[in-house]
Amino acid sequence: MRFVASYAFIAWLCASGLATAQVADLRSTTQFRVCADPANAPMSVKDGTGFENELADLFGQLLDRPVTYSWFPSGMGFITRTLRAGTCDVVMGYAQGDELVQNTNHYYTSVYGIVTRKDGDLASVDHLTDPALKDHPIGVVAGTPPATIMARAGLAKDMHGADLMVDRRVEDPVGDLLEDVRNGTLDAAVLWGPMAGPRIKDDPEMRFMPLLKETTGPRMFYRITMGVRPGEQEWKRELNSLIRRHQEEINAILKEAGVPLVDDYGKELLP
């Protein structure tokens, strides 16, 4: 029995070593291979105009490797069909803490906010429990953290939900909500900053108010990382080093795009 147990243990060790080698072999050393949604504007777009595309270009330059993409719609199966399948080596713009990937250090923190018309009745609202929100039609993406707070605040009857899990090649729920705010169908929309901020940064009639004062319910700010395969420690450390040494360049791209950046605790907007 001891021999059988020892043999099993040795076999397990060998298998573990093989698995580690196979993981390491998946990463390209000649290209910066990015897993991305082809229609997730303003973040990633197949024509290269998204701000995550710009960040990928920056990292490609720093690594002296051409940037290539494995395109697949975000949602169910995205990680399995891209990163885990070995067709690409990094997912840009991945929220910290997801167990499907190994997270790098975060390279920015952003926040949910309220989008209104600047001349609208709700332009000064900066928290979701403000009584002023009641009896006003408000857009929100179903299943997102602010939807929970709004429901608890008694705003369920005023909420106009948009679907979260959609194929953005054919649907644009955030764009639809923003257009409804512009044309007056909605008085406000509560949206994730990186999705809303860049879309309205040049619109003189719209504003984004970050939700920095929420004290109950799900948090409104999230740290954003890159995702790599579990076990690829060397690759993660290499990316972490680049993030640390080039944070100012990263911030410049994000600010130019119109992404609202906050401190790591979601308390203050960065200048």
TrEMBL record:
Signal peptide, first to last residue: 1-21
Start and end residues of each Solute-binding protein family 3/N-terminal domain: 31-260
Gene3D superfamilies attached to this UniProt entry: Periplasmic binding protein-like II
Protein name as it appears in the record: Quinoprotein dehydrogenase-associated putative ABC transporter substrate-binding protein
Cited InterPro entries: Quinoprotein_dehydrogenase, Solute-binding_3/MltF_N
Keyword Signal: yes
Alphabetical list of NCBIfam families matching this protein: ABC_peri_MoxJ_2
Keyword Signal among record annotations: yes
Keyword terms, alphabetized: Signal
